[in-house]
What we know:
Layout: H1 3-25, E1 37-42, H2 52-66, E2 71-73, E3 76-83, E4 86-93, H3 95-105
Amino acid sequence: MNTAQHHRRRELITGLRALATFLDSHPQVPVPRYGTVRVSVHTNYDTDATTEAEAIAEVERIAALLGTTPVVEGGHHVAGMEFGGVRYEAVLVTRAAMTRRAALDSYSDAIALDEIEEA
């Protein structure tokens, strides 16, 4: 791990601990009622992977460290672990999946929905 990665890791851990301490000592500050707080590592950006294959391998490597199996669905490779209401996950979205999504979104301007009046 290089110095910049080590510094970022320490900074993240320190920030998470500071947030936990703050929330613990300020019970009047609301926290999310529904859903999970996520810490997501995008293996094509947040690791040393330089190819999509390497980024997929990173998801698999992280899954092994977490003691879990990656889920692969629709071009999304995800490995994660829950810590109460907090989830750590490694994610890779393939170029093919991003291309499919961009194609789908390209039609969004062609559809106009009538505005719904509030009752």
